[in-house]
Amino acid sequence: MFDFYHSSPHVAIPRFARSVMILASEQESILRTQVCIIGAGPSGLLLSQLLHRQGIDTIVLERKTKDYVLGRIRAGVLERGFVDLMHEAGVGDRMQAEGYVHDGTLIAYDNRQFRIDFKALTDSSVMVYGQTEVTRDLYAAREAMGGAILYNVEDVQIQGVEWQTPFVEFHQAGQCKRIDCDYVVGCDGFHGVSRKTIPDAKRQEFEKVYPFGWLGVLSETPPVHHELIYANSERGFALCSMRNENLSRYYIQCPLDQKPDDWSDAAFWEELKRRIPEEAAERLITGPSIEKSIAPLRSFVTEPMRWGRLFLCGDAAHIVPPTGAKGLNTAASDIYYLYHGMVQHYLHKDGEGLERYSEKALARVWKAERFSWWMSNLLHQYPDQGAFDRKMQLADLAYLEQSKVAQTSLAENYVGLPY
After folding, report:
1. What is the pLDDT of residues 135-166, one digit of tens each?
2. Is 326 a known active-site residue?
3. Buried (b) or exposed (e) across 287-311, using 16+ Cβ within 10 A?
4. Which of 89, 185, 186, 413 would bridge with 316, disulfide CB 3.0–4.6 Å?
């Protein structure tokens, strides 16, 4: 019995014949796959792995090298839904063994702190596991299954997505190449080509740029607390986070016109201590920074997230400020909807999931945007913030401290709304 894959919605080709087709095509620099994924970050790799386990063929394109992608320092708080997807993709073992399950988080203000108990309020938790490690696990799985990743691709152009025969053209090592496919998925970030492929007249964008950034420091020191501390201070926001028991990640709010070199390690640690409760500042262990960067904050959404046979995922379609730990997690929810839509289409001849992908993904994205916007407003100091605004912020924090209903709302959003 042949193992079939679908080269189009209506044509089935034996899997052994597919290999012959691709090998013959390579001589002409034309490849063939079912789904072409642009971007080999965690969202593109996760989608490719999930589809592979369902017998759906993909090729992944990446503008940079593998080492470059793995060198990017990103957040690592994973919602319950993301954790489930990692297990479904068959790459959850190391995460489960080495990640840190967090049943709550601390909110600090006015030199006091209180705990949001995720487990008690929602019967769920989050997993602290660095995005770099997520990506490393997905690369290992992709390579083990012999999945195609083409690195150092340039001049990517997406063509024909309004019709039945889309294709992607690009250059690699000075050679022009082309991939014919059924669908194109853009996981290539905010500055990628995928979103811009949708005509301006058909695309609507919503954006809020925040008047501050986050100065982040990575240090080989024990975390100040076993859970995250979100701190509201008159001097500005601060966050105490971690990667593992000997690797800590700390952030402080800073002006956008500053640069990392403006901050010595000593100045950073001193400012952090001023913004967190005295109890935490006294037990903070400092050390040399091994990475220091400033990230601007932005809320951004583009609609729709589908144009013909092109689908947008993750930062290609939306960005959130990191305050609510939703960036990687909103990308995961996109992958969830698209993965299930692809399975419906290829395995069950049902197009409903793909047809409604943009609608479903955006409904959850906007809720994540709201939560991240609310958390940012709750915890940061704004340049134009007056005395009344500050009193309202403190009242909001006091209400959150005293109200189980308010804490439940935060906890439900933080651990992840259902897909």
Report:
1. 999 999 999 999 999 999 999 999 999 998 99
2. yes
3. eebeebebbebebbbbbbbbbbbbb
4. 186
